[in-house]
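Changelog note: in this version the structure field was regenerated for every chain. One regenerated record is shown below for reference.
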Amino acid sequence: MKHILDHNPLSYIIMSYNRWIDNAIGLKWFTKVFVPKTIPLVEGRWRLMLFNRHLFYITSKVICIYIANKIILLCLPLHSIHLLQPLDISLFGPLVSFYKSIIRATYKFGYIFSINKLVFLDLYLKAYEKAFIMKNIESSWMKVGLLPFNPPLVIDALLKPVILISEIVST
């Protein structure tokens, strides 16, 4: 795993040729980032990891790592994990908005056709610092019903009726 951003030792980046996660990258992230970075947070207690559809999470090799590191794996139904992820709810929306405004401000007098990875990371870090503030973090936990604990927020979202395109066309 390649270390990036000398001033931020908690940041890592790894890339595949096709830009998709694969089993090797997933396993490397899990063993080199997730496991060691979350151990200090739980002090020997069990941890919970939510996932959906990434196959590297359920190989026999990874399952042995889960057990050895006291990690419980919970597979959620398809298209539901976003309802439980506070970051998706209240942090990544503002992050995208701040990133776009930083791009516009940085390049307002000229055209830009591409941004290399180092420039991207520099601009991303500026947007991250604006979006990941305590107010947004606290709001995200409330909106997913985790703090204060309010399960009906997620349950009600899962139980909303889904309108299929075929139903709209036939009416």
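Spot check on this record: The first strand starts at residue 2 and ends at 3. The helical segments are 23-42, 60-68, 86-90, 92-106, 117-131, 134-143, 152-159, 165-170.
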